[in-house]
TrEMBL record:
This is serine-type D-Ala-D-Ala carboxypeptidase. The active site is at 58 (acyl-ester intermediate), 61 (proton acceptor), 113. One of its GO terms (molecular function) is serine-type D-Ala-D-Ala carboxypeptidase activity. InterPro entries: Beta-lactam/transpept-like, Peniciliin-bd_prot_C_sf, Peptidase_S11, Peptidase_S11_C, Peptidase_S11_C_sf, Peptidase_S11_N. Belongs to the peptidase S11 family. It comes from Candidatus Borkfalkia faecipullorum. It catalyses: Preferential cleavage: (Ac)2-L-Lys-D-Ala-|-D-Ala. Also transpeptidation of peptidyl-alanyl moieties that are N-acyl substituents of D-alanine. Substrate binds at residue 220.
Length: 392
């Protein structure tokens, strides 16, 4: 009986500590807007109503956090203003006058969805909420999120506050490439030390995907009556990181799990070019010498297995390279297509250093002047042309 009780307790403990795969026995109801992107390449892996504009609730805070991380010092100390204390909705209950670092406020923003943190950070960044929202919209346009408009830093209902599943995925994918952002949104817990309120704050991440989905590592939940349940989630498996957006989703966790499973099962990362390997050997203006060249960067891309046969390349290469050539010198251009769609373009560069010898120079001068290599006067005349003293 003791052994049986021990086994039951051990099983319960494991069920708490280990990630539980979200795999419902039924198909979760689709969301109003959905999109999934591979983070590094930005390839859209799945989409449904991805261009439809709709409110996004607290997933707004992804842009708020990104802007602050990019443009403020994490160690700046913020004195909480009255305007931030007592903001409606979710909060960490900031008190006017207490002091907190930007870093601590970011954890309060992203783990507990603090609307008060959003206002405090926005005012620290731009002095006014209007100025901060202007910068949010500028940054959205810079990232290519052209169907998005922000009217506040927290996501509470407001006129002119909307995004699309596609735009939000683009913003989140970019933000996840920032190591500070990525570290914050993947944290399960965080403790904010006492900043003058008389107690420390222990924060637990609201994003249940972190403990319910294998490989989950971000990012943000959201809910308002107008927006419905919204979730931006991310997960990494076998080196591939996918960000998934569901807006106005009746079953946001199960639906996100289904979409991530679908993308991970259908797509794999393929290394199409290795920058450590040469891909072409070019002739040079010295007939006996060639130069090996490589792709400037590695190129890894998510593909379905059946798509591999549809990948093709185009090289724009010179007839010959003119020496001298240094390692890393540009030698041409490489374009990669999936069917007829350009998916990547990069330089082809020299993998080695090649120079002309003195004899190569003499031969070149001799050729220009009609001298035949091996003739009696070849070396003497070529040397004179090169500026070297002739010898008898």
């Amino acid at each position: 009986m003791k052994l049986k009780a021990f086994c039951i307790c051990a099983a319960l403990l494991l069920s708490i500590l280990l990630p539980v795969q979200i795999l419902p026995s039924f198909a979760a109801e689709p969301s109003a807007g959905e999109a999934a992107l591979e983070v590094e390449s930005g390839r859209l892996l799945y989409a449904k109503n991805e261009r439809e504009q709709m409110p996004m609730a607290s997933t707004t805070k992804i842009m708020t956090a990104l802007l602050v991380i990019e443009e403020c010092s994490l160690d700046d100390v913020v004195t909480i203003p009255a305007q931030a204390a007592g903001v409606e909705g979710s909060s960490i209950y900031l008190q006017e006058g207490e002091k907190m670092t930007v870093r601590d406020l970011l954890y309060g923003l992203m783990l507990r969805s603090g609307n008060d943190c959003a206002v405090a950070l926005a005012l620290h960044h731009s002095n006014t909420l209007d100025a901060f929202c202007k910068r949010m919209n500028e940054r959205a346009n810079e990232l290519g999120a052209f169907d998005t408009h922000f009217s506040n830093p927290h996501g509470l209902p407001a006129k002119g506050h909307f995004t699309t599943a596609h735009d939000l995925a683009v913003i989140a994918a970019y933000a996840l490439k920032n190591p500070v952002f990525s570290q914050i949104v993947s944290a399960h817990t965080y403790t904010i030390p006492d900043g003058g309120c008389g107690y420390a704050r222990f924060l637990q991440n609201k994003n249940k995907m972190l403990c319910q989905y294998e490989g989950a590592d971000g990012v943000k939940t959201g809910y308002t009556k107008e927006a419905g349940r919204c979730l931006v989630s991310s997960a990494t498996r076998d080196g591939m990181r996918i960000v998934c957006v569901v807006l106005d989703s009746p079953d946001m966790y199960n639906r996100s799990g289904e979409l991530l499973d679908k993308c991970f099962s259908e797509y794999k990362l393929y290394k199409l070019f290795d920058s450590n390997e040469y891909i072409v050997e070019l002739n040079t203006d010295v007939p006996e010498k060639t130069c090996k060249c490589r792709a400037e960067k590695d190129f890894v891309y998510p593909l379905r297995e059946e798509e591999l046969a549809s990948v093709r390349t185009e090289e724009d290469l010179p007839e010959r390279l003119v020496l001298p050539v240094q390692e890393g010198d540009e030698a041409g251009n490489l374009k990669i297509y999936l069917k007829n769609q350009l998916i990547f373009s990069q330089k082809i560069v020299s993998i080695e250093r090649k120079e002309k010898s003195f004899l190569d120079i003499l031969r070149e001068i001799g050729k220009r002047n009609g001298l035949v290599c091996g003739s009696t006067n070849f070396l003497q005349n070529a040397a004179l042309q090169a500026g070297a003293p002739a010898t008898n």
